[in-house]
Amino acid sequence: NLIVQVKNNQVMRVVPLENEDVNECWIADRDRFSYESLNGDERLTQPMLKQGGQWQAVDWQTALEYVANGLRQIKTDHGASAIGALVSPHSTVEELALAGALVRGLGSENIDYRLRAADFTPAGGIRWLGTSIASLSNLQRVLVVGSNLRKDHPLFAQRIRQAVRKGAAVSVIASSTELATRDAWAMSLAGVTTVAAGGWAQALADVATAIGAEKGVSVPAEGNASAEAKAFAQSLLGGERKAILLGNAAAHHAEASQLLALAQWIGEQTGASVGFLTEAANTVGAQWVDALPGQGGLNAAQMLSGGLKAVLLLNNEPEFDSAVGEHTAAGLEHAQMVVTLSPFKANLAFSDV
To answer: Which DSSP letter does residue 18 get?
Structure first.
């Protein structure tokens, strides 16, 4: 839903393509101006190979042969399980599918897009919004958990703001980091529970307890039906069109699976849809093409903890894009070959190609 305007083989401007079902006529500032990086100094225009500690520009044939030979040798010496791929959910479906085909073609199940995750419990299905984007504008009740909505998902925020202007009640469970101030949401909020991330599961359990008491049903986790929890429960029990939305911080949470389970129970009891405000452009696509570890495969945290001999990094910089952050280099230092696939000169300190 973008129009990319090009002049003299350079991207000069990015503007929205109108689509009422997705972005209407809007575009976020970061999408409008991020094209500038394409013309930056860090843009990679041809393959590079580290030789004697120095980076040298090489042709495609040389780079591809180096990687192919290296992967074959590492598989022979250490087995296929010593090879893994960390892929970004910002990558295209085609890129993710091909990365999976490459890794699995070598006999490994070590592939994962969940670099920022702390809880790797299988989801039991694809994590997605749970409803159509357009329907957000017509919701009557919304519960948002762990999201700085306007910063993380500005176009979703714009949709929900439309719903508020029509009378929707939006409740929020978040920490001061995500919530900032009520004014930062640019919409009126019916209820706010500001609690550290470690308390989100308990806050949801409190809401579940209040709903259970109201409906006379048992609850999956013990909570305290406080006045605040009762207000949240009453809000979700009212209205017809409603949604529970888990934000980026909830998806990355150490108790992400518990947050989802509680949200799903609340959704079942109130008739609300349950979904994730997904962190990247293609989080759903990454799940759809199974960019996830198979049986016996390592997840992202395990791969970054060390032990792999060959690592493929697709469109990511683990130092900035993963939960382990600055410890990335230590986790990759024992790898014999690190291959970065990126439009930019990324991961220079520990990559070989």
So the answer is: P
